[in-house]
Fold this protein.
Amino acid sequence: MRALFTFLVLFSIGNTSFAQIDENWTLIARNSGTYIAIDGYEVRLMGFTSGIGAPVIAPGPTLRATTGDSVKLRLYNLSQGAPHTVHLHGLDVDQPNDGVPHLSFEVEHDSSGYYYFKAPHPGTYLYHCHVISPVHVQGGMYGIIIIDAEDPTVTWDGGYSFDKEYHWMTSEIDTIWHNDTIINHEHEMDGMPHNIPKYYEPQYFLVNGAMDFQHEEKEGINIHEGIETKILLRLISIGNFANKYTFPPELNATIISSDGRPLPIVEESDTLWIFPGERYQVLCDPLTEFIDSVQIDYHELTMGAAKGTQYINVVIEGVFDLPKIEQTPITFYPNPSQTYLQFSENDFTYTVFSIAGALVKQGNSVNGLVNTHDLLSGNYLIKIDHGLGANTFFFNKE
């Protein structure tokens, strides 16, 4: 009777505390996803979706609330295999609602679990499954959480105002970790051992689940308003590598917060290192027009040479009502290539990367011509810098 009374009291307290739910989030755990890489390779994924019929992608849906909101998160597990959780990384909620299995709970197949919390300090956070974390996170079970201030145009009360925002989540894929024997692993709550492979050389280096040349224009920074525009970048790392961001100096980047908390002293810098699980907010205040790109290098944690590189295009025009930059689209042929690539732009420097981002060759074009006869057969990226900015293209060498 005493146990029943205690349960009823706790149940009453829990439901009274969240009698008013401001945000209802739903995540559905699946292990039936497929990522089609740029070279056509199909990678098996685990992941979260917001609807039963929605495709499994990584990152999962971006979850958003306003500081002070009462949030109810339902996790529905349809993975046909291991249980899952939703760990609210960085939100500092109480342990029963934090998604760490032995301190919270696991959700078995065809079952639901519920997390309740008050949205904390405004900032950028992330979520991921905490069951055999190395396997499930590498599998694709992660996403972004954004907590807005009451005024969504400022970073936090008394903080910085901004006009546009972008969020970029970095990760990698090592295909060894994505076969059926790992994705469909057995699992026991009492600590059943699970053998996982070494993390070798990742084949794909991703931003928001894609390589930069797969992104639509909206994924880059594109400012055309003709007024001074302040830009908030939300940068999140969920991979196993360290990320070095290099910003164009013209962006006038200032690092203002780390892991959901304001920095006591902000730092103006063109470079930023982000390690696994970290989140940073960077405020950019471009004061001139330019076309360039943000460079992201992926380094092993031993801090050796970069194993991969991604670029995110940046176009700033119309600042202070200056005329728009006239940019003629650049084309090239043939693709696939056997001995050369001919570009519509005549004079530029170029850098060729492997599909994994490793530097292969670099040089200067001759009347828009790039020699490819010395490349092995395969898929490549070529970045060209033609004075007004840089562009990255994908091509195949036969």
